[in-house]
Structure prediction request, 114 residues.
Amino acid sequence: MSDKTVAERVIRVFADFKKVPAEEITMDTTFEELGFDSLDGLNLVFELEEEFDLTIPDDRVASMKGVRQAVEGIEALLDAKEKGIDVNAAAMDEFKKQQAGAGSKKVDEGSEPA
Prediction:
């Protein structure tokens, strides 16, 4: 891992993504202030996942409204990873549960008599 703090790395990812100087982004900068739409937010999450080599679970993504929430969420995930908790496996389990729920709903919707 680099010598930079999580906050510095998150700010750099935000700055690179928006193509602005890192000095323009603070811990209190929000997605709204940066003009992010939902697609930008999703792409930013992919960039953060790549930077930190982890999967950010959907519940963490939903709670991210800006830099501070991103930093806090990533710090928590990195802490869990350091303690031996496989956050990627936990995220995959969550994804599978959601898919199973969505799949059964689709089956129910598609099972109308012809």
